């Protein structure tokens, strides 16, 4: 009787161990990588996003011809756009939209070091959970930790870029034209604030594009660190 009990107990334990081993195989392993090294890999992925994707935004039409980030008119100005087109000022309306995007392109060129430093200084409290998160988890984390501070730094750059590309003069002329039309309500939008927010969204969007590439394409992991770290989430 005791022998039978021992045999059953042994079989049960062997079965349980086998099941536990199978479960363990399915769990993500750290491969000896600590939080610090995983965090370094995430920073490198974000750096690649800035280097390969955000720099595209600094080129002519980098915003204007990129459907992912093109800056459209805020709701308040959509009626301005439509009214000007209705009275034959479509070219002026087109130019107004284009210079908003030109200002963003110029500003991102000036502000790229801000993003580089933000990534360098960011601390990943739980790098492994971010690594095993969604396709843009690191970018979302970067956004949550830097957006408010970056907005304050980015806003004066946008303001300067408005002047540099002539956007302030064009929009002053455009809005004055609209406000002079009978039976319209005057508008006075804060375009610097609006374009700052849209430009920041565009930057984070393009960083996320590269993060997704690295997460989903082994060929995009072009350094040993990226290969080691992102292998954990495959």
TrEMBL record:
- Keywords for the protein's UniProt record, in alphabetical order: Signal
Q: Where is the signal peptide?
A: 1-18
The source's domain of life comes to Bacteria
The record's Pfam families line, in alphabetical order, gives: DUF4197 (PF13852)
Q: Output this protein's name.
A: DUF4197 domain-containing protein
Q: Which organism is it from?
A: Wocania arenilitoris
């Amino acid at each position: 009787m005791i022998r039978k009990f021992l045999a059953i107990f042994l079989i049960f334990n062997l079965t349980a161990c086998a099941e536990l081993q199978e479960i363990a195989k399915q769990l993500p392993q750290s491969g000896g990588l600590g939080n610090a090294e995983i965090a370094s890999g995430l920073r490198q992925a974000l750096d690649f996003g800035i280097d390969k994707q955000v720099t595209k935004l600094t080129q002519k039409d980098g915003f204007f011809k990129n459907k992912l980030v093109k800056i459209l008119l805020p709701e308040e100005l959509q009626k301005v756009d439509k009214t000007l087109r209705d009275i034959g000022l479509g070219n002026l309306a087109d130019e107004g939209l284009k210079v908003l995007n030109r200002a963003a392109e110029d500003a991102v060129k000036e502000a790229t070091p801000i993003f580089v430093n933000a990534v360098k200084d960011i601390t990943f409290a739980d790098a492994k959970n971010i690594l095993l998160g969604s396709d843009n988890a690191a970018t979302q984390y970067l956004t949550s930790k830097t957006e408010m501070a970056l907005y304050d730094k980015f806003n004066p750059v946008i303001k300067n870029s408005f002047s540099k590309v002539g956007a302030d003069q064009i929009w002053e002329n455009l809005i004055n034209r609209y406000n002079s039309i009978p039976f319209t309500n005057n508008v006075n939008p804060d375009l610097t604030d609006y374009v700052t927010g849209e430009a920041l969204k565009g930057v984070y969007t393009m960083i996320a594009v590269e993060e997704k590439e690295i997460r989903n394409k082994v060929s995009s992991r072009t350094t040993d660190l990226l290969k080691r770290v992102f292998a954990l989430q495959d």
